[in-house]
Write a structure and sequence with these properties.
The chain is an alpha+beta fold. The protein contains 6 helices and 18 strands. The strands form 5 sheets. Strands 6, 9, 10, 11, 14, 15, 16, 17 and 18 form a 9-stranded mixed β-sheet that branches. Strands 3-2-5 form a 3-stranded antiparallel β-sheet.
C-alpha cells in the first residue's frame, strides 16, 4: 500500500486547486474523501482515494477570473520594485479591450487575489496571465508544467551554426541544464523562441551566451492562447471556450 499523503498536497497534484485553496476548503468542510467529509488540516489520505469538492467550492472556482494582459515595457509582472509599478495596476475598466469583452463586465472583486502566473521581464512586452484560479496558476508555472511559451526576440550580433544549435539545446544557466527549446529565424534580425520553462531573464541570458544582444522581446503565446490583436496596455478576460 502506498504511503499516505497530505490531502492538500494531493489535491494540488491532481490540479483540483492550489495547496492554499485546498487548506481553505478543508478547513471549511468543503472536501469529501471517498464520500467522507474531511475538515481537519494536515489530514493524510491514500494517494488513490476519490476526492470531491462540495458544490459551494466548485461554484467559487467557476467565479474566479483569468485575465490576459498585453504588458508594456516598464511594468514588473510580480512584486513592485522601487520606481516601477506592477502590471496589475493596468487592470482597470477603461483599459478593458472592448473587442475582447466576451460578455463579461469588470468588477472590483476581480482584483482580489489576482496574481501573475509566470514572469515577464520589465523590459519585455506581450502576453501576461493574471489569475484568481490556483488551478490555472499551477498549470502554467507548476514545477511539472509542460505548457509552451512562444516569444519573438529581436537581436543584434552574429550567430553562427554552433551558437544556433546551442540555443536549441545544450546551454546551462546557474549550473543547471536548460530543457530543449525550439528556436528558429523569423526574419533577418528576429528569432522565434518556444520554451517550456521560464528561468529568470532566460532568453536574454541564453542569447548572451552565444554572443547576441536582445533589443526587443515579446511573448505572443502561452499554450493554446495567443496574444493576437490585443492592444499594448490593454487586457481581456479568458473566455469559457479558451484553455491553455
Amino acid at each position: 500500500m502506498a504511503e499516505p499523503i497530505r490531502l492538500s498536497k494531493l489535491m494540488s497534484e491532481r490540479g483540483l486547486c492550489s495547496r492554499r485553496e485546498a487548506d481553505s476548503y478543508i478547513e471549511r468542510g468543503l472536501v469529501f474523501v471517498d464520500g467522507r467529509r474531511v475538515s481537519e488540516l494536515g489530514t493524510k489520505v491514500d494517494p488513490a482515494c476519490a476526492i470531491r469538492l462540495d458544490t459551494q467550492a466548485s461554484a467559487q472556482q467557476q467565479q474566479r477570473v483569468t485575465i490576459l494582459l498585453n504588458k508594456p515595457v516598464g511594468y514588473v509582472s510580480g512584486q513592485p520594485e522601487p520606481g516601477y509599478q506592477p502590471a496589475v495596476v493596468l487592470i482597470r475598466p477603461e483599459t478593458l479591450w472592448q473587442d475582447g469583452r466576451a460578455g463579461q463586465a469588470f468588477h472590483p472583486t476581480h482584483l482580489k487575489g489576482l496574481a501573475p502566473a509566470g514572469r515577464l521581464d520589465i523590459d519585455s512586452t506581450g502576453l501576461l496571465v493574471l489569475t484568481q484560479d490556483g488551478r490555472i496558476a499551477k498549470q502554467l508555472v507548476g514545477e511539472n508544467s509542460d505548457i509552451e511559451k512562444e516569444y519573438l526576440v529581436r537581436v543584434e550580433g552574429r550567430l553562427d551554426d554552433k551558437g544556433f544549435a546551442l540555443l536549441n539545446h545544450g546551454l546551462s544557466l546557474d549550473g543547471r541544464k536548460l530543457r530543449p527549446a525550439k528556436v528558429s529565424w523569423q526574419n533577418a534580425d528576429q528569432l522565434r523562441f518556444i520554451l517550456k520553462e521560464g528561468r529568470k531573464r532566460q532568453i536574454r541570458r541564453m542569447c548572451e551566451l552565444v554572443g547576441l544582444k536582445v533589443v526587443g522581446l515579446k511573448r505572443v503565446r502561452i499554450g493554446r492562447v495567443r496574444l493576437s490583436e490585443l492592444p499594448l496596455g490593454q487586457w481581456r478576460y479568458l473566455r469559457d471556450d479558451e484553455a491553455f
